Amino acid sequence: MLAYLSAMAGAEEDARTYLERSRRRHEELGLTLSRAHWTVLSGMALLYRGQLEAAEAELRWGYQTLRDIGERAALSTVAAYRASQIAGRGTRLPCRLAVGDTTGPWDLGRAALALAENTDDLELPGYAHAGLAAVLAAAGDAHAAAAETSAASSAYRAKGGAVSGPMLDVAPVAEVRSSTETLSKSG
After folding, report:
1. In whole angstroms, what is the distance from residue 137 CA to residue 132 CA?
2. Structure pTM?
3. Residue 41 is assigned to a structural domain of this protein
4. CATH no. for residue 48?
5. Which of 70, 91, 115, 117 is most buried, judged by most C-beta within 10 A?
């Protein structure tokens, strides 16, 4: 929890320290179920720190561990965070958009939003809306992208996140798409 709160406040060094301490203590005490459940928070702390691949790996481990144990109460929440991270913040979205595919990322984003809306988490819908905003911006639908960005911003404000706002910049994804189109036209 402290790693997540520190990362959310922008205190990266404290977040790193708390992440390492938490993992070590969970392992020392054999608290596999607890650690798997809390990957929602550790995964988001890693995401806030800009460690996208580590965040996805953390959430994947939590999901797989909970699934293997047969635990279902936390499984849906971890799955929703993982789907949202993959759809909106992982490397798949910009890569798919860069090659002109907006259908795959749109489907992932809608699925992530559906999962997010079925949780009581205030921030998760923000990530899903931000992912959809990036897809819509890359597809050239500025009006719909702005609506999704606004929805994401509202979700982040409801949670009180200090570093979530800068994550709403969907311009780089749209720029990648534009550069790819330029290259394909000239080649």
Report:
1. 8
2. 0.55
3. yes
4. 1.25.40
5. 115
